[in-house]
Amino acid sequence: MAEAPDRNLALELVRVTEVAAIAAARHQGRGDKESVDQAAVDAMRQVLSTIDMDGVVVIGEGEKDEAPMLYNGEIVGNGDPPLVDVAVDPVDGTRLTARGMPGALAVIALAPRGTMYAPGKLVYMDKIAVGPATAGMIDIEAPVVHNLQQVAKAKDKPISDVTAIILDRPRNEPYVQAVREAGARIALIGDGDISGSIATAKADSGVDILFGIGGSPEAVTSACALAALNGEIQAKLWPRDDSERVFAAEEGLDLEQVLTTRDLVDSDNTFFAATGVTTGELLEGVRFGSHNVHTHSLVLRSKTGTVRFINAIHSVDQLRDLSAFEI
User: Residues 186, 190, 192, 197: what is their CA dihedral angle, to the nearest 10 degrees?
Assistant: First the structure.
């Protein structure tokens, strides 16, 4: 007999990302990224406490951002089963939101307890990510041109039509130069490489591959999403200084190891939800009407391979009556 469908936690988690996105979007363009993050954290915490789960935050914020965080080790949910690891980014792109720029998301992901990779103080990783067409064909240790050729081969188009998305940071300039020398196209992003990773697996995004050094939390969170999208991410820890190299040695973390999607989240049952804060390549941002708020979300589960895009209309007055935070 076929196994009966069980609970899709991602359909409950989307309530968390929706309220976080709405709360954060109230501060769009005001130039205060701390207020963006605080609003999203407050909203997330309240709704997370209502979810039927016994969760521990394995991938939180604060280590890297020194933010008003949902911190690593924090217990979330109402304490009922299942036992889960939680990866959370109340706003992936606080600076984007504060400056009124595109591509910010509210994000959360779950996997069974003990399955998420925990890099601790090593908050950066070198990364490469692709969608299902090129999964199994990339190698983070190979030259950039090789990986671009693999994408071009898989998608049956010339390298000149391949688009690489790269976080716009000085540390990623070697990637930018290598892509240019190979003759491919580049989409530079100011923040938010979770969105960039997922965009490689979205057929109409125009993005084929992600390169570059970005956050370790974002790598693990992206792995939860790409596991459901049949994409692939590879990563290597990227220490910023000698103290982080010492930490890696003390914790037994191999700086030369290529971390696969499975290394980052060792489960076939991941859950992922994201809601757009500001409009980007992946999702539309929050739109405020006279009495309603419109949100656009992505909901994924790897066990079933289900991909949902959810357009929701929320009553502002009713949400405010139910909420202890600004909405």
Answer: 10
**Polymer length of the chain:** 327
Quote the tokens at residue 68: 């008003």
Task: At 75, list the tokens.
Answer: 């217990």
Q: Are 213 and 124 in contact (CB under 8 A)?
A: yes
Q: Tell me the C-alpha distance between 138 and 209, whole Å.
A: 10
Residues 56 and 245: their CA atoms lie apart, in Å, by 27
Backbone angles phi, psi at 250, to 5 degrees: -65, -35
Q: What is the pLDDT of residue 289?
A: 92
DSSP state of 218: H
Give the pTM.
Answer: 0.91
Digit-coded pLDDT (tens) for 210-243: 999 999 999 999 999 999 999 999 999 999 999 9
Alpha-carbon distance of 315 to 325, in angstroms, equals: 15
pLDDT for residue 159: 98
Say how many CA atoms lie within 13 Å of 24 toward its Cβ. 37
